[in-house]
Amino acid sequence: MKGEIDMNIAYYLTALLILSSMALPASCQEQISLTINVHEEALDGPLLSEVLITGSDGTGNEFAGVTDSDGVAVISGTPGTWQFSFQKDGYDDLNLQYDATQTEETAAYLEKSSCAEQVALAVYVLEGSLDGPILSDVQITGQDGDGNEFSGTTNSTGVAIISGIPGTWQFAFQKAGYDSLYLQYNATQSEEAAAYLEKAD
């Protein structure tokens, strides 16, 4: 009887060991997914496409992904502390850790690089039309593509050189005796541009 009991105990122990060994790979292979939204400048800023995301998951497995046109990338891996690196031309690199324990949605943001390439516009201001006479002493103010303010005044040849970060620039042109002019300009490279003012009624 005792021998039979010992054999039953041995059988159950063997069964438990087999079940345990079968369960281990399943837990080791458990995966979660993070849906990562990458923004510009702040978590409520515009979404950024083509951001390269690299790093490693909770067990050190490396991953890589790129945000799509909606600024989203889905990264999968094992739970734990994940290491992230975010990279995009014109923006400062971002490196961070995240405690990934479940499938969820999260977000990060990149800041524009302070050393971003600048462009310069030679802005000509004329009277009445683009082929009219030049205007000196026109006050030009506005913002570049990064929101930095600028100002300048046309010289005796009717031109002012304005430098800033590429993007959509906001301009205001003012001169006594003329109607003020406000416009946007897509400044992507160093070049010449022109505007004209009309005499005030």
Please give the order of strands in the largest beta sheet: 3-2-5-6
The overall pLDDT average reads: 87
CATH class of the largest domain: Mainly Beta
Termini separation comes to 118 Å
**Total number of β-strand segments?**
14
- What's the CATH architecture name of the largest domain? Sandwich
The helix fraction, in percent, is 10-25%
How many helices in DSSP terms? 1
Going by CATH, what is the homologous superfamily of the largest domain? Carboxypeptidase-like, regulatory domain
- Rounded to the nearest angstrom, the radius of gyration is 31 Å
Characterize the main sheet.
4 strands, antiparallel
Strand content: over 45%
Q: Could you name the key traits of this structure?
A:
201 residues; mainly beta; Immunoglobulin-like; 2 domains; 14 strands; 47% strand
Can you put this structure into words, describing what you see?
By secondary structure, this protein is mainly β. It folds into two domains: 31-110, Sandwich (Immunoglobulin-like), CATH 2.60.40.1120; 119-197, Sandwich (Immunoglobulin-like), CATH 2.60.40. Helix content is 13%, strand content 47%. It is built from one helix and 14 strands; from the N terminus they run H-E-E-E-E-E-E-E-E-E-E-E-E-E-E. The chain has one helix at 2-28; strands spanning 32-40, 52-56, 62-66, 72-77, 80-87, 94-100, 104-110, 119-127, 139-143, 149-153, 159-164, 167-174, 181-187, 191-197. The strands form four sheets. A four-stranded antiparallel β-sheet has the order 3-2-5-6, with no helix packed on it. A four-stranded antiparallel β-sheet has the order 10-9-12-13, with no helix packed on it. The longest helix has 27 residues, at 2-28. The chain starts with a helix and ends with a strand. 18% of the residues are buried. This is Carboxypeptidase regulatory-like domain-containing protein.
